[in-house]
Amino acid sequence: MTKRKWLYVIVFILLSIPVGGYLFLLLLRSASHVNIDKNKFPVSGIDISEHTGKVDFSQLKTLGIDFVYIKATEGATYTDKRFEINSKGVKQSGLPYGFYHFFRFKKSGKEQANNFLNKIRQNPGKLPPVIDVEEWGNQSSGKNTENLRAEIRAFIDIVGKKLGTDIMIYTNPSTYHRLIEGHFDNKIWICAFTDEPDKKINWQFWQHSHYGTIKGVEGNVDLNTFKGTKDNWRSFLRETQ
């Protein structure tokens, strides 16, 4: 039996035992959440999708939320089920917002760029559009690293040209080192559940939790911060709008 199969067996056993399942979920939660120093990182944001559930955008400003990213699309044809509702809600809130696309390795960059543009072109938001590139839950379908980079590049070039803006890349450390590092100079939104991302990664945004709880948000929400002070944040907004 492979190590991966042994891992599945252990997880199944733990989840089959009430106490074991509870402890496993606690470990999973702690591994996907880190509290940050708000004095060092005072700008807070969230990113949401259909998995987040209902969001009362009118409450976010009063709770210290400075920005929101919303999932728009995935792959060549999929649209997030709450895209329209979330888009309308965040626009009415007055919060700075932007949209992201989950990149599927099996589909071409051109197809995915067109899917994303069809949804956000009329309302691209105030923050840089984002391509979400991660190996977790993704299959390369035989494409090698160079092929994948070429498809990512195609997406970035097409969307950037149509919208006249830079595209930010969301990723995690392992995917960053495999596919992004040394090949793209785009701003980086890094997902890292450590005290702080690797200093070798020149990140702009940091997703530090998958298990945030915020009043007015139905489910758990991803928590993010901006690299810089409040003044840096205001300057960033002026540059990107």
- Tell me the CATH superfamily of the largest domain: Glycosidases
The structural domain count equals: 2
How many beta strands in the DSSP annotation?
9
Helical amount among residues, as a percent range?
25-40%
Number of helices: 8
| Anisotropy-based shape | globular
User: Largest beta sheet: what is the strand line-up?
Assistant: 1-2-4-5-6-7-8-9
Structure description:
By secondary structure, the protein is of the alpha/beta class. Helix content is 39%, strand content 20%. The protein has helices spanning 3-16, 18-31, 57-60, 83-93, 109-120, 145-163, 173-180, 230-240; strands at residues 44-48, 67-74, 78-79, 97-102, 130-132, 168-171, 188-191, 203-212, 221-226. β6, α7 (173-180) and β7 form a beta-alpha-beta unit.
Secondary structure layout:
Elements: H1 3-16, H2 18-31, E1 44-48, H3 57-60, E2 67-74, E3 78-79, H4 83-93, E4 97-102, H5 109-120, E5 130-132, H6 145-163, E6 168-171, H7 173-180, E7 188-191, E8 203-212, E9 221-226, H8 230-240
Parallel strand pairs: 1-2, 2-4, 4-5, 5-6, 6-7, 7-8
Antiparallel strand pairs: 1-9, 2-3, 8-9
Helix pairs in contact: 1-2, 5-6
List keywords for this structure.
alpha/beta, TIM Barrel, 2 domains, eight-stranded mixed barrel, 8 helices, disordered N terminus
How would you summarize what this structure contains?
The protein is an alpha/beta fold.
